[in-house]
Design brief:
The complex is a heterodimer. By secondary structure, chain A is mainly alpha-helical. In chain A, 67% of the residues lie in helices and 0% in strands. In chain A, helix 1 packs across helix 2 and helix 3 packs antiparallel against helix 4. Chain A is flat. Chain B is built from 11 helices and 7 strands. In chain B, strands 3-4-2-5-1-6-7 form a 7-stranded mixed β-sheet, with helices on both faces. In chain B, helix 2 packs across helix 3 and helix 6 packs parallel to helix 7. The longest helix of chain B is centred in the last third of the chain and has 19 residues. The radius of gyration of chain B is 18 Å and the shape is globular. The chains are: A mainly alpha, B alpha/beta. The interface between A and B is medium-sized, with 26 and 25 residues.
């Protein structure tokens, strides 16, 4: 019953959005949202998922990596520890900036924990030779650094004028 | 070969830089394009935004080359980076981001010293197109962010460009720069008959949603009348004001990756961007030349 109600409510909402913004805009938004969330939305026709997690955890992926590429594992495990202890990329926005810089087109997630998970999965698939340079950039991303950057730029422009 | 689009309006503060950077992000992230943004404004705001203020200062302090060096490479004295030397075009390009699928967002930064070019401009308008000719095979889209004055720099942009995009604000004197732009384009085309350059459209930018004031309506209607007179297309999708654009510019981020950006703002920009790509990708479409 609950499922039927929410289904009809959902259909009404979509209909309203289509009327307001047009079918193309709504379909494009849904498509984009699905891509961003790795298609988290469940298809009602699709077989129900089991409670088993579809993806292995970052921890287990790192463990698997240890036997295949020790150096890459060492770098990423250290970085993951720093992330968890909030020693780098303290705010969610810092993670988004960093992700954009190292070539992640999109990073989804509301909580910092979600973002860290997505970031680590991306890094685990990157070539090992790129990692040292990419990870080094992480320390540059903080609100304090950004504020300091504006001050430095202003000083530079004033000095040159 | 890349399509080159210049953002030009002889009126300042209309959102050229914001639009140029956001189109570049959209092209690279949503359309998987290889994009190069050339900052052709001595104020260098696009460079400061895309590279971040700290990144930009570090780049200059390290002696990084800029668009000023492209214009001043053969000047015997007073070049931005010291004495004249043969310039490798690739050395002026900064890789903001390279994606795994081959798409990218690169920038040729600017600096204040670009204004020196305006003091001694003779023969320099061909240096930028020569640079573009050397690197254009590496890109799908080249965007040039121009300064709001008609100068040697504008001429250089015309030489490189297939299309001109004109951002406008619906405000008093909104269309004041149109006759100047039209005359400037016409003069250029008379001097270079072999060159095809077209206005791909005018886009209303940075206006308050709803509750449209009388002055804004007058400005819009004035702009539309002038656009019709010159045969210029006006984009159907506007870009209303949002503080998120300021945040995106401050943080050097795409609008849809900027914290707190509403879905409506993202979809409005996306609708404009799609229309923009329709305009520039269909070469058979009739885009009107200046009258």
């Amino acid at each position: 019953m609950k499922r039927k109600l929410s289904q009809s409510l959902l259909e009404e909402t979509v209909e309203l959005l289509v009327r307001h913004f047009g079918r193309e805009a709504v379909e494009s938004a849904i498509k984009k949202e699905r891509a961003e969330n790795n298609d988290k939305c469940e298809d009602p026709q699709a077989p129900k998922r089991t409670s088993q997690k579809p993806n292995p955890s970052v921890g287990s992926m790192l463990d698997d990596l240890a036997s295949r590429d020790f150096e890459k594992h060492r770098l990423l495990a250290a970085f993951y520890a720093q992330l968890k202890e909030r020693k780098v990329l303290v705010d969610s926005q810092d993670i988004r900036f960093f992700a954009q810089t190292i070539g992640m087109k999109r990073i989804s997630g509301k909580s910092r924990e979600d973002l860290v998970g997505h970031l680590m999965r991306f890094l685990l698939h990157q070539p090992a030779d790129r990692l040292p340079a990419d990870l080094k950039k992480a320390v540059d991303f903080s609100e304090a650094q950004r504020q300091q950057g504006f001050s430095i730029l202003t000083d530079k422009l004033l000095k040159n004028s | 070969m890349a399509v080159c689009v210049s953002l030009i309006n002889m009126k300042g503060g209309v959102g050229k830089t914001t639009l140029a950077t956001q189109i570049a992000w959209f092209a690279a992230r949503d359309r998987d394009k290889k994009v190069l943004l050339i900052d052709l404004d001595p104020q260098a705001n696009a460079s400061q935004s895309v590279l971040s203020p700290q990144g930009y200062v570090d780049y200059l302090d390290k002696g990084g080359l800029t668009v000023a060096d492209i214009f001043e490479q053969f000047t015997p004295t007073g070049t931005a980076a010291g004495s004249p030397k043969k310039l490798d075009p690739l050395n002026t390009i900064v890789h903001r981001v390279d994606y795994d699928d081959g798409s990218c967002f690169h920038i040729v930064p600017s600096r204040l010293e670009l204004s020196w070019t305006l003091r001694n401009p003779t023969g320099k308008e061909t240096l930028l197109p020569r640079f573009v000719a050397k690197i254009e095979q590496e890109y799908d889209l080249i965007i040039i962010d121009c300064s709001p004055t008609d100068s040697i720099l504008t001429d250089a942009a015309y030489h490189c460009s297939r299309y001109i995009l004109v951002p406008i604000r619906a405000e008093f004197l909104a269309s004041i720069g149109f006759p100047l732009l039209n005359r400037s384009l016409k003069a250029f085309q008379m001097r270079h008959e072999d060159k095809t350059i077209e206005v791909c459209g005018l886009v209303f930018n940075d206006f308050t949603r709803g509750n449209v004031k009388r002055e804004h309506k007058i400005a819009r209607s004035d702009v539309r009348a002038k656009a019709a007179q010159y045969g210029w297309y006006v984009f159907k999708n506007d870009i209303p004001h949002s503080d998120s654009y300021f945040r995106a510019a401050r943080d050097g981020m795409p609008i849809d990756g900027t914290k707190g950006t509403q879905w409506k703002v993202k979809s409005e920009f996306e609708a404009f961007a799609k229309e923009f790509f329709d305009r520039i990708s269909d070469e058979t479409k009739t885009v009107t030349k200046p009258s």
